[in-house]
Design a protein that fits this description.
Elements (H helix, E strand, L loop, with lengths): L5 H11 L5 E4 L2 E4 L2 E2 H4 L5 H10 L5 H13 L8 H10 L5 H9 L9 H17 L4 H15 L17 H13 L6 H13 L11 H11 L4 H24 L23
Antiparallel strand pairs: 1-2, 2-3
Family: Belongs to the citrate synthase family.
EC number: 2.3.3.16
Pathway: Carbohydrate metabolism; tricarboxylic acid cycle
Length: about 270
């Protein structure tokens, strides 16, 4: 068996974590080719997120649209499993990083994944329209197909809000970005067509929610569907941090999901 020379070993080791995200050397930190000292004080955090993920720089309008989506998803209260778990973890003697990780780790398909799923749904509609179907027909086809696989359509309806208060401000910003030619508007049109389709014949509407509105933004900005979930995690991490910090200051120890004087219902041996 041929052995690796020292020079080859050095190159092999250097290539092991080859990356275009960062160049780091003594006295040098470059993010996507930009010296970090040039970014400090000149780049907004949303613009930096864009640059790190997509490798390009957003326009000012695109950065504002991304920032709006990130702001909208920051928190939804301690009844959200991720926040409740982070708060409980914060009373168990762990640090803020562990409390945050505990909450973030449950942001899965059922809790936190609707944005990614909605981007996938809207991508299906946009693909069909690109192949020549009207957006109405494409929406009807995609809704029918998704309903065969899913009990609900991600991005529409909300168990708390008859109309999600975050929806209209986000969609208004998308419309303004379309008018300014910052984004194309294809996914926004698809989302509204899906909303119209799922409400056809209904007396009680199922409006687009925060996941749908942010999915429109992330898709319009060119983020692949999996990154929609990653961006949501970044956004919700702020709320999780705030809740974990607040709970850590309460002085409580080993806080559980229900008050200590409330006992879980015993179902008996037949269950």
């Amino acid at each position: 068996m041929r052995t690796t020379t020292a020079e080859e070993g050095d190159r092999k080791a250097a290539d092991w974590w080859a990356t275009s995200v960062i160049r780091m050397a003594p006295g040098v930190v470059e993010l996507r080719g930009r010296p970090v000292q040039d970014l400090i004080g000149s780049s907004s955090f949303p613009a930096l997120i864009w640059m790190m993920l997509l490798g390009s720089e957003p326009t000012a309008g695109q950065a504002r649209l991304l920032e709006a989506a990130l702001v909208a998803g920051v928190d939804h209260g301690p009844q959200a499993p991720s926040v409740a778990i982070a708060r409980m973890a914060a009373t168990c003697g762990v640090g803020l990083n562990s409390a945050m990780a505990s909450g973030i780790n449950v942001l899965g398909d059922a809790h936190g994944g609707a944005g990614q799923q909605c981007v996938e749904l809207l991508d299906d509609v946009v693909t069909l329209t690109a192949e020549g179907e009207t957006v109405e027909t494409a929406a009807a086809t995609v809704v029918s197909e998704w309903r065969q696989r899913n009990r609900y359509l991600p991005g529409f309806g909300h168990r708390f809000h008859p109309v999600d208060p975050r929806r209209e401000p986000l969609l208004a910003l998308v419309d303004a970005a379309v008018a300014a030619s910052e984004v194309r508007g294809l996914h926004a049109t698809a989302a509204r067509a899906v909303e119209k389709e799922i409400n056809r014949g209904r007396s009680r509407p199922i409006p687009m929610n925060i996941d749908g509105a942010t999915a429109v933004i992330y898709a319009e900005l060119g983020f692949p569907a999996p990154l929609a979930r990653g961006l949501f995690v970044l956004s919700r991490s702020v709320g999780i941090l705030a809740h974990a910090w607040e709970e850590s200051q309460s002085g409580l120890r080993n806080k559980g999901p229900i008050p200590r004087d409330v006992l879980p219902t015993y179902l008996g041996q037949d269950h």
